[in-house]
């Protein structure tokens, strides 16, 4: 079965940086579209960024210019580099993969806390 495992979450001060990682199995990060969702308490889960597949790289408007999504072909790890972090960036970040149009995989999430 496909598994996605996130890491790199933690506490960061506003204005700081953090880098999340996602390790997948069965080459799904290479072969499918992959990205990161964020969910804060009481809020809808939001697609923050995605890449790969047939579509171009996507960034949610609020993170444009601050976050960078990337995939290391050598190690097959998906990253989300978070820079100039704001309190509104806090939440649980989920690694996400979509293969085709109907098959999705999710990691367990890694929590990002931002202190003012």
Count of DSSP H/I helices: 1
State the distance separating the first and last CA atoms. 40 Å
Number of strands: 11
- H/E series, N to C? EEEHEEEEEEEE
Share of helix, binned: under 10%
How big is the Rg?
A: 13 Å
Task: Report the biggest beta sheet as strand number plus sense, adding barrel if it closes.
Answer: 7 strands, mixed
Structural class designation: mainly beta
pLDDT averaged over residues: 96
Which outline best applies?
globular
- Low-confidence runs (pLDDT<50, min 5 residues)? none
Q: Beta fraction of the residues?
A: over 45%
Summed up:
3% of the residues lie in helices and 53% in strands.
Features:
seven-stranded mixed beta sheet; four-stranded antiparallel beta sheet; 1 helix; 116 residues; mainly beta
Characterise the protein shown here.
The chain has one helix and eleven strands, in the order E-E-E-H-E-E-E-E-E-E-E-E. The mean pLDDT is 96. The radius of gyration is 13 Å and the shape is globular. It is mainly beta and 116 residues long. Strands 2, 4, 5, 6, 9, 10 and 11 form a seven-stranded mixed sheet that branches. A four-stranded antiparallel sheet has the order 1-3-8-7. A hairpin with a 3-residue loop joins strand 9 and strand 10 (103-106).
Task: List the SSEs and their pairings.
Layout: E1 4-7, E2 10-13, E3 18-24, H1 28-31, E4 33-39, E5 46-51, E6 58-59, E7 67-72, E8 77-82, E9 91-99, E10 103-106, E11 110-115
Parallel strand pairs: 2-11
Antiparallel strand pairs: 1-3, 3-8, 4-5, 4-9, 5-6, 7-8, 9-10, 9-11
